Amino acid sequence: MRLQFETVDVFTAEQFSGNPLAVVLNAEGLSTAQMQAIAAEFNLSETTFVLPPKDPAHTAAVRIFTPKGEMPFAGHPNVGTAYVLARAGTSYGRPVAGGRAMFEEQAGLVPVEILRDGTAVTGARLAAPQRLSIGAEIPAELIAAACGIAVDDIETRSHRPLIASCGAAFILAELKSRAVLQAAIAHADVFRREVAKHPVTSVHLYTQVDEPALDIQTRMFAPQHNIPEDPATGAANVALIGLLAQLQPEPNLTLTRRIAQGVEMGRPSLLHAEATKQDGAVTATFIGGSCVPVMTGTIELN
Fold first, then answer.
1. Catalytic residue among 6, 46, 105, 274
2. Are 286 and 128 in contact (CB under 8 A)?
3. What is the mean pLDDT of the chain?
4. Contact 147/207 with Cβ under 8 angstroms?
């Protein structure tokens, strides 16, 4: 079996920065085990597999794998996959034209807006497949131990560390400064021994910044998924923008934030996040950014 793939860097306008993604095209002949093996072979934070949609009105079905398991939804894989298909101009014989795509995923339907500069495809922006849900609080002491910081470094005035999701769940914790964020380090043994006792094991740290082109800086650790650190995590940041909107006192608003991630890894990413709140509840969340192509190639399976 021969399959085509492309790799792209997501949430960046420069090659070899942002979050790399492998997109395997026309993957309908693969088993789940083969998809998992290919994702482990790429060893990127995520690899996507493009499949025929169940509903012909949709662009494609998309399955998303980390090196260790399948994800129901993720941000940078959707942005990068939409970018690849829009540049190709077709998916399973149907044109990918105009400004929209629709992906079928485990978490639900994912609408994607194609971003263009004139006729050139530059990136994508997605709407999360599920409304914001806020789960249990997580002890600050656990986050401090897992991430190598002091308990007093965790900002709790707005919220304590907690689980939030817009289709994929993460532990969100605010830190008091960028210096603390930069000093954080994932202790895999604590993740394995203590964080694993909770239903969610990926920790997304963030801090507020005040710069002309930036509002928030983040880091995401997920050693349980074989991701010591992720350069850009769309699903975590789309949950974060939803949480921040929910915490605002206004019952109706549109909140936008520019979010940097991957800086400490030498793969800086820039994500544009937005949330809409109506009558006191977050009704929609969005994440988007630029992409650049990197490699194309062929997978040959015996």
1. 46
2. yes
3. 96
4. no
